[in-house]
Write a structure and sequence with these properties.
The complex is a heterodimer of chains A (about 190) and B (about 425).
Chain A: H1 8-12, H2 26-55, H3 63-84, H4 100-132, H5 145-148, H6 150-172, H7 181-188
Helix pairs in contact in A: 2-3, 3-6, 4-6
Chain B: H1 3-20, H2 24-36, H3 43-54, H4 61-74, H5 77-89, H6 96-108, H7 114-131, H8 136-147, H9 157-166, H10 170-176, H11 178-194, H12 207-232, H13 238-257, H14 265-295, H15 298-310, H16 314-331, H17 334-352, H18 356-369, H19 378-387, H20 391-414, H21 417-425
Helix pairs in contact in B: 1-2, 2-14, 3-14, 4-7, 4-13, 4-14, 5-6, 5-12, 6-7, 6-8, 6-11, 7-8, 7-19, 8-19, 8-20, 9-17, 10-21, 11-20, 12-13, 14-17, 15-17, 16-17, 16-18, 17-18, 18-20, 19-20
Classes of the chains: A mainly alpha (about 190), B mainly alpha (about 425).
Chain lengths: ~190, ~425
């Protein structure tokens, strides 16, 4: 379900809704895509090693910690990338059927709500991660904060991408030629249930 | 403000934010934040509950099965499955419509995701269906309906989340979903037979061709047997089964069937890495919402309400749960619905003395049905996009198909044996 056409490097950064993206942040999206892939590969390998070492009678207990850590980071990094790529599930697409001022108002409201949630995740995620500095995963003894830090980092990235969309939308309008989230989603391949 | 009013406010705000265009996971979190302001729950607790919601080993199976679906589709292995299905049932009245259902049942045993199913099968099947004179809206409706089988036949992502959140055996949910999945499949085939979409009739494929096509598809078709066999044989957990499926696909299936695709693996991992985060972000948000709802004692209130209507009559309780899930599934993504509803359902299951596996499978089939109902019919939205027809036209053509789901869900509620027989054979219930 890969994006069609172009070299892999070109297709890593989604080109749809280009007018809502700053080229300077493409590097962040590309890095997040690579990171998401690497994290998925990491916990695939650690689950594999976990099974192998257990079967051979030489279990490595910290593998499960690495597995869950990579999974949690993958969720929040992939979730942040999906905000820039506008791939999250939507309940309705009312704004997309509108134009002009009404669309601007609706898009602004929805982006402000998203921004508020992102700031909530960044601020209170940071507080939660600080609590995790005093808690240690067993058996490795590494601070739980290493895993929970994914939440504030994701919050910051989501806030950044939301501001990017908001500012570009105000400057050039939110309308685009491919005004259909599900087209994007379908071309990239669906997920979930 | 009373506890139930706060719950009502959160529900209203979720729908409002969703309608305004806020992505589902963030609409859930935003409504939770507002609800939290009326309680003594701290913001850090909300974040902690989001974290706890996804910090669970059983959920790791979700990315693995999404990755397998991604690998199969992007390496064009799906086309082999289509070829085999065509040789098997392409000659039956309904032709390609029958093929869509059968290949969806095959793919269901590999990916566990309706969206992956629509993307993979819609792309391969919709163009030839259009060429052979099938109405594109009919085709889209059928592709979407058939894709829901992915949630019933193992591996099922919904079953993994339901089992992980509700503490129900994922293996039992997997096995219990087989008969309902086949029932929906047969229902769709009967529908296609009597309401055939095209006059085009194909020749029955010679036996030798069927065998040849089967040979070309045997490697991917081994995956569901490997998964279920491994779990039932006690060789591995559902999570490990997912990993085994990934390793098997990368080490055996792709090198043997699509060697040239190996260089694209990094891109598949990247896409799957983002794709699995979508339902998991929704799980994180829904976990926080489920915590607040439990804090406000809503499950107890709902149990009391249901007890007042249905007493302890198991069938009536299940009917009420199904109705509630049909409504919820119309507005909310299935995964967050499972996370939010499961604690409430658990109380009702106890009240009516219902088998948790029976309830779980019925809930999954009902929520899968929600994937083709408006306004949040994700599978139908995707299929109509691929077929290049308006959602409303696909919806109209879906209405007769709803009958199949009504019949199947009713039978499952009335006859628990349809769900529990197969898990019973393997001593899972």
């Amino acid at each position: 379900m890969s994006a069609s056409g172009g070299t892999p490097r070109q297709t890593i950064v989604l080109q749809k809704e280009r007018h809502l993206k700053w080229r300077s942040l493409d590097v962040v999206e590309r890095a997040l895509m690579w990171l998401s892939g690497l994290l998925l590969a990491t916990f695939t390998v650690t689950v594999f090693l976990d099974v192998v070492t257990r079967t051979t009678g030489t279990p490595i207990l910290w593998l499960q910690e690495v597995t869950l850590g990579a999974f949690v980071w993958g969720v929040f990094m992939g979730g942040a990338a999906a905000v820039r790529r506008n791939e999250h599930f939507l309940l309705a697409r009312i704004a997309r059927s509108l134009g002009g001022g009404r669309r601007l108002v609706l898009e602004t409201i929805s982006h402000v709500i998203l921004l508020a949630v992102a700031i909530f995740l960044a601020v209170y995620g940071f507080a939660f991660a600080l609590l995790g500095l005093g808690l240690y995963s067993q058996p490795s003894g590494t601070p739980l904060a290493l895993t929970t830090a994914a939440i504030p980092v994701s919050g910051i990235l989501i806030a950044l991408f939301t501001i990017e969309r908001l500012v570009n939308g105000w400057q050039g309008g939110f309308e685009s030629d491919e005004d259909d989230l599900y087209q994007t989603y379908a071309e990239e391949g669906g997920a979930g249930e | 403000m009373s506890d139930l009013m706060i719950v009502g406010l959160m529900a209203f705000l979720f729908v409002l934010f969703g309608v305004l265009g806020v992505p589902v996971p963030f609409a859930v979190i935003a409504s939770v934040i507002v609800g939290m302001l009326f309680t003594e729950i701290s913001p850090v607790t909300i974040v902690a509950e989001m974290f706890n919601g996804i910090n669970a080993v059983p959920l790791l199976a979700v990315p693995f099965f999404i990755l397998v679906g991604e690998l199969m589709a992007s390496s064009n292995v799906t086309e082999r499955l289509v070829g085999f299905a065509q040789a098997l049932v392409g000659h039956i009245r309904g032709g390609l419509a029958q093929v869509v259902t059968v290949v969806s049942m095959f793919f269901a045993g590999i990916s566990g995701s309706s969206s992956a199913d629509v993307a993979a099968i819609g792309r391969v099947m919709l163009p030839p269906m259009k060429r052979e004179g099938y109405n594109p809206a009919n085709s889209a409706a059928l592709v979407a309906a058939a894709s829901t089988i992915a949630n019933m036949i193992p591996p099922s992502i919904m079953a993994i989340v339901y089992g992980a959140v509700g503490g129900v055996s994922i293996a039992a949910l997997f096995v219990g979903g087989v008969v309902p999945g086949v029932m929906v499949g047969l229902g769709l085939m009967i529908y296609s037979y009597f309401f055939g979409f095209s006059e085009s009739v194909r020749e029955r494929a010679p036996f030798a061709e069927v065998v040849r096509k089967a040979g070309g598809s045997v490697l991917p078709l081994l995956i569901p047997f490997m998964i279920v066999g491994g779990i039932l044989g006690g060789l591995f957990t559902p999570t490990e089964a997912g990993m085994v499926a990934v390793v098997y696909t990368i080490v055996v299936v792709i090198p043997l069937l699509a060697r040239g695709h190996l260089r694209n693996l990094p891109r598949d991992f990247m896409h799957a890495g983002v794709l699995y985060s979508l339902p998991m972000m929704a799980v994180a948000g829904a976990s926080a919402l489920a915590y607040v709802i439990a804090y406000l004692r809503a499950p107890t209130a709902v149990s009391g309400l249901v007890e007042g209507i249905a007493g302890t009559n198991a069938t009536l309780i299940m009917v009420l749960i199904v109705l509630a899930l049909v409504i919820a599934g119309d507005f909310l993504d299935a995964i967050p619905t499972i996370v939010i509803a499961t604690p409430v359902i658990a109380g009702l299951v106890e009240l009516g003395g219902i088998d948790p596996v029976h309830m779980g499978v019925v809930a999954i089939v009902t929520l899968a049905f929600g994937l083709i109902t408006p306004p949040y019919g994700l599978a139908l939205l995707l299929a109509t996009t691929f077929a290049e027809v308006p959602f409303s036209r696909g919806l109209v053509k879906s209405l007769p198909i709803y009958v199949v789901f009504f019949v199947v869900i009713s039978l499952l509620v009335l006859f628990p044996g349809l769900v529990l027989w197969l898990p019973g054979v393997f001593d899972l219930v």
